[in-house]
Amino acid sequence: MENNSYRRLTRSTADRRIAGVCGGIAKYLNIDPTVVRILFLISIFFGFIGFWAYLIVWIAAPEDNRIEP
């Protein structure tokens, strides 16, 4: 018997502004997407790590409607 109780980080297609990264992270963490967007903006202004994190997730995470079983 297979255990499918794990969650998968995906980019949101319903709640997106640019690529759906913040919406996907918010859905994964079960928090408001605005909080994630603000945290990304703060991290971009203070250290620029937010840009690289956003870019990596944008490339690595699939969209939520393209999940293969």
Could you tell me the number of beta strands? 0
Shape: globular
Order of helices and strands: HHH
Q: Kindly state the percentage of residues in helix.
A: 40-55%
Fold and architecture overview:
This protein has helices spanning 21-29, 33-45, 49-60. The two termini are 15 Å apart. It has a domain at 21-63. The protein is mostly helical.
Compile the SSE list and pairings.
Blueprint: H1 21-29, H2 33-45, H3 49-60
Helix pairs in contact: 1-2, 2-3
Which tags fit this structure?
69 residues, 3 helices, mainly alpha
Write a compact overview of the structure shown:
This protein is mainly alpha-helical and 69 residues long.
